[in-house]
Design brief:
single chain; Nucleotidyltransferase, domain 5; 3 helices; about 130 residues; alpha/beta
Length: about 130
């Protein structure tokens, strides 16, 4: 079983990125084996639709859950349509977040946590 964690770096020792669609990296891992792959997010600089594009990218990796700080409505719907659990409010070190997930301490949400323009840099959200 694979899960995805949004990350600010490409290691398990880095911090969780609070954004989904425009996070720096996606870390795909099997929590049982500890094996992981860090992939730079190809949608960081997308003009629009970063949430949907990132959702589709993650869905192609056949993950069971996404762990992130926040998720907007378009990304949330894309992930839910793919049957992926969305867990938000996640922060701290990636490895510690994986341990919390394995322990059953993190639960999926039922609605997006931010508006559709959350991840855009200031001045680009209009």
């Amino acid at each position: 079983m694979k899960i995805c964690i949004t990350a600010q770096g490409n290691t398990l020792e880095g911090n969780v990125d609070p954004r989904f669609g425009r996070c720096q990296y996606f870390i795909f891992t099997d929590p049982d084996t500890g094996e992981f792959e860090a992939v730079q997010n190809p949608n960081v600089e997308a003009m629009g639709g970063a949430g949907v594009q990132s959702g589709q990218f993650v869905a192609q990796k056949e993950v069971k859950a996404v762990l992130t700080g926040n998720v907007g409505p378009n990304a949330f719907e894309t992930l839910k349509a793919a049957g992926i659990d969305v867990i938000t409010g996640v922060s701290g070190v990636v490895k510690e977040v994986i341990d919390k997930y394995k322990a059953g301490e993190l639960k999926p949400i039922q609605a997006p946590t931010v508006g559709s323009k959350f991840g855009l840099p200031p001045g680009k959200n209009n």
